[in-house]
Amino acid sequence: MKLFKRILLFVIILLIAIQFIPYKHPQTNNNTKGDIIVTGQISGEIASILKTSCYDCHSNQTHYPWYSHIAPVSWLLASHINEGKEDLNFSEWNSYNKRRKISKLSDIKELVEKNEMPISSYTFIHRKAKLNEHEKNLIMKWSDELTDKLLK
Amino acid sequence: MKKISILFSSLTVLCAILFLQGRTIRNNEPLTGLKTDTTHINYYGSVKVVLDNKCYNCHNQTSRSEKARRKLNLDSLSLLSKVAQVSKLDKIVETLDKGDMPPKKYLEYKPEGKLTADETKAIKDWAQKTSDGLLK
To answer: What is the Cα–Cα distance from B63 to B53, expressed in whole angstroms?
Structure first.
């Protein structure tokens, strides 16, 4: 009993202590000039899917829930979102050249088809973000169509 | 004792969740999308020498690294579809811009494998020029 109490106390102190380790959430930015949705390049249906399933990690419009400010969750989220935005940022879509857009669309199609995106640790918490078969097909079709348009 | 077991089990589950969310997603599928007709790829200037000396060891058809071969296979680059080629060429540019290649672990035991500024520029220029040609 004494040992259990000591371990528990240690864990609680550790959890409190790590809250003081500085971290920085990737900033959100309401300047949406270059955003793929704002520029009207995609349909309402695709926009809705992207916003629900992709935008938290792949845009400057991340929604940070209350638990995102508690370590170690805050660290994991910061790391995920930084990596996500580095790989693909829909808010900067217009800054991508044609080659980059085609490459990103190819990645989107491949990863959605293989159920690798959105990632399971995200959809475990955000159930609505999980893509059903219809949504997957819509995204893949959209990727193909936009790629064909860019190739012309 | 029971409480210690519960606490230990809870910590184990928490650690497992944290570990699993950070796991690398592996793709062990073989290279697909090859076509029999080829798009001839021009290796402008000195870039062929640079690719041969600094990249080919890992990025070839018989590479021991399945991941390196899957990410970029210089032997079959010209066999890919136009979109796939443009994609690979863009990945080359993006990867070099980030300074991610050659990998740091590789350079630890082979520091001479590091790309010079001129070599990086040569590869990027080649990748951009080749993809521009494909997009015409």
So the answer is: 14
Characterize A117-137 residue by residue with b for buried, 16 or more Cβ atoms within 10 angstroms of its Cβ, and e for exposed: bbbebbbeeeeebebeeebbe
Question: Mean pLDDT for each 10-residue chunk of chain A (152 residues)?
Answer: 87 87 72 81 92 95 86 86 94 95 97 96 93 97 95 90
ipTM of the complex, rounded to two decimals: 0.80
CB contact under 8 A, B90 and A103: yes
Q: For residue A149, give both structure tokens.
A: 């348009």
Q: How confident is the model at residue B29 (pLDDT cuts 50, 70, 90)?
A: very low
Mean pLDDT over each residue of chain B, to the nearest integer: 82
Which two structure tokens, joined as six digits, stand for A14? 């550790």
How many Cα atoms are found within 13 Å in the side-chain-facing hemisphere of B72? 20
How close A135 comes to chain B (CA, Å)? Answer: 22
- B83 closest CB neighbour out of A3, A11, A147: A147
Surface of B (66-95) touching A: CB under 8 A: 82-84, 86-87, 89-91, 93-94
User: What token pair was written down for B100?
Assistant: 């991610």
Residues of B in contact with A3 (CB under 8 A): 4
Kindly state the average pLDDT of the residues B33-62: 78
